[in-house]
Structures are given as C-alpha cells and as structure tokens.
Amino acid sequence: MNKLIFTTSWDDGYPLDKKLLSFLIKYNIKGTFYIPLQNKERQVMKRNYIKKIYSLGMEIGSHTLTHPILTKIDENQAQHELIESKKKLEEIIKKPVISFCYPKGKANPNLLNLVKKAGYKLARSTVLFHTNLKFDPFYAYYNSFFQTFLFVLFETTN
Predict the structure, then answer these.
(1) pTM of the model
(2) Count: domains in the chain
C-alpha cells in the first residue's frame, strides 16, 4: 500500500509567516520553514517563535545564518554559514536540522558538496517551471511562481 505525503515549504522566516502557520494548522498541512537567523534586508522570526513552529509539527530547515547569496561569498564563509545556522537552529529546537534551502536559489556543485559535508540530508533550490525525474536530494527544485515547494513522497508500507 502506498502512502501519499504532501508538504509545503516557506523561505526567509518572515514574521508574517505567523498567519501562514495558522492556515497550515487549520487545514492540517505540514510545512518546512527555511529560516535564516539574521537578514540585513528584513526582519526574521524570533527564536521563541521558531521553537513554537517546530512544536506545532512543522519542520525547521536552515536558510543560512545571515542569508547571503552563497555563490557570491568565499568557500570558508559559505561553510561557516551552513554549519553555524544548522548548529544554532538545532540548539533552538533541540532536534537535528536535516534540510537546507539555498538563499535566492543560487547554488553550484561546490556548494552542494559543502551542504553534504555540513551534515544536511537534503537541500532545495528554485527553478521556475522545472520538473526533473532524476532527483538529487541536494538540489531539489520548486516552482518559484507559486513560492511554495510541493514535495511528494511515496512510502511503501508492508
């Protein structure tokens, strides 16, 4: 028997995501919130709210420490962003953070390797209207037109 799992994902940790959270809960929809801990461009969620989102059954994923475009910084800075954001989010939710989202969807083969080395199990990016049957868990695509990622998994049960 196959079990269909449906989830959504949301980037940047905007404080306005609180309204989104109430919608997801109302309709029993799971989501992954990719949250940077700082962002020069705008406010991000406070740590206590990150903890609350997780306690309500949502996944917390990393979106770097300060939301830089990783392809525009050096490798040591990128590694720091990946490792420290994962570590700090894990301190907040007291559980492993396994997923990562590339800021602005920008990635390259070197970054994919850094994400793997940092201990993430998967990462996603943004590619407009793209479908690919050759799934790479470190470069999953989503439809940026809708600003949501629909990740469908089939789980075979015995």
Answers:
(1) 0.79
(2) 1
